[in-house]
Amino acid sequence: MITRVLSFSNFSLPTLGRRATQTSLLTLLLFVTCWFAVSIGAAKSDLLFPIKLLGRGLDFSEQGSAILTIVSEIRLPRVLLALIIGSVLAVSGASLQGVCRNPLADPGLLGISSGAAVGAVTIIVFANQFSVAESIQPYLVPIAAFLGAAVTTFTIYRLAQVNGAVQIATLLLAGVAINAMGGAIIGVYSYVADDQSLRLMTFWMMGSLASASWSMIALCGPILLICMKLIYQKRQQINLLLLGEANARYVGVDVDRVKNQLLWLNAIAVGLAVACSGIIGFIGLVVPHILRVSTGSDYRYLILNSGLLGASLLVTADLIARMLITPAELPIGVVTAIIGAPFFILLLLQQKRKLVLAL
Questions:
Q1: If DSSP codes are grouped into helix, strand and coil, which group holds residue 161?
Q2: Cα pseudo-dihedral 73, 79, 82, 86, rounded to 10
Q3: Which terminus of the chain is more exposed, N or C, with fewer CB under 10 A?
Q4: Residue 228 backbone zone (phi > 0: left; psi -120 to 50: alpha; other: beta)
Q5: Which of 297, 303, 358 is nearest to 9 (CA)?
Q6: CA neighbor of 276 nearest in space, from 69, 179, 70, 138
Q7: SS3 165
């Protein structure tokens, strides 16, 4: 009975039309934001750059060739990395909120981002004390961040396990404790770090896509895309989990297995995303809320639309970060917070008005 209600309750034609329209508009928005992000930059802005890149022969002058090289080797990888990471953070936030049945759950709350930050900052502060081959130095911080996220996930996973089952309340509390511990460790590192390490550490913790490259996309992109695909395949199980774990078990969902799989998929995806870009907040928290207000909490649509909107938001934030104070660059986490926090407050005020009217 529960499965039948869930399968047919959201299939009225107006609802389907609204969701299809939303997905189409979000796809168009992503295309437009990527077009502008590729076209606009400190070196030169030209709305025909995407077309020129496809032709790669519309401008044979030396200066034109140099500009196109800048666009193809610096600007385009950065836009693609922003697209992928924005999607990952939004999809991760949406799925964790569904599994935890908590609208405030996101990778930051569970401590995954904090663990990645501790790993990365450890390398930033102490790397000079060890002799490391130059060929692997650029990869030390991302590797350390990923390992930090993995260790943190394993820790909260073990803390939240009771008789082999993951307890959501304990998981959230463990995440809060890990966040506090991570903040304390980073505070100690800030005290002992030199000026150069402190500046790099602060900039990395606020997020940046300046290190984007084709090699980074080739290495991390496929893993991130696979993680998102596997999370998307769990959309129906997440819908059933929203009804309560007892009801989900009643209709045949292996609740513990689904929670474990989603937790580790999110850990891999977020750990790798943080390793590439540093800590970028608010996307995993705000994007699912925006979409829930407009079209509800059906995860058959919410995860896909969260990926599209999260990608658009991060591509836009990165464009603002690199153009607002050219030739310098703002940390992208600052921009996402400036965009996300006021919008989130407006959503809360809107929900507050609805509650007042309902009473």
A1: strand
A2: -150
A3: C
A4: alpha
A5: 297
A6: 138
A7: strand
pLDDT per residue as tens digits for the range 84-113: 999 999 999 999 888 888 777 777 777 888
Calculate ∠ Cα 93-95-100, nearest 5°. Answer: 95
Point out which residues pair with 166 in neighbouring strands.
161
For residue 234, give the nearest of 303, 170, 307, 283 by alpha carbon: 303
Angle in degrees, CA 290, 105, 297, rounded to 5: 40
Taking residues 309-326, what's their average pLDDT? 90
Residue 270 structure tokens: 């977020």
Q: Give yes or no for a contact between 320 and 259, defined as CB atoms under 8 angstroms apart.
A: no
Report domain extents, the chain.
Answer: 2-358
The predicted pLDDT at position 193 comes to 83
Minimal CA–CA distance to 227: which of 197, 276, 266?
266
Q: How far, in Å, CA of 278 to CA of 272, rounded?
A: 10
Tokens read off for 32: 């437009």
Predicted model pTM: 0.85
**Which residues, including other chains, have CB under 8 Å from residue 65's CB and lie 6 or more apart?**
59
CATH superfamily placement of domain 2-358? ABC transporter involved in vitamin B12 uptake, BtuC (1.10.3470.10)
Q: Tally Cβ neighbours within 10 Å of residue 167.
A: 15
Q: Is 323 exposed, middle or buried (0-12, 13-18, 19+ CB in 10 A)?
A: middle
Predicted confidence (pLDDT) at residue 275 exceeds the cutoff of 90: no
**Cα distance between residue 231 and residue 317, in whole Å:** 25
Phi-psi region of 204 (alpha: psi -120 to 50; beta: other; left: phi over 0): alpha
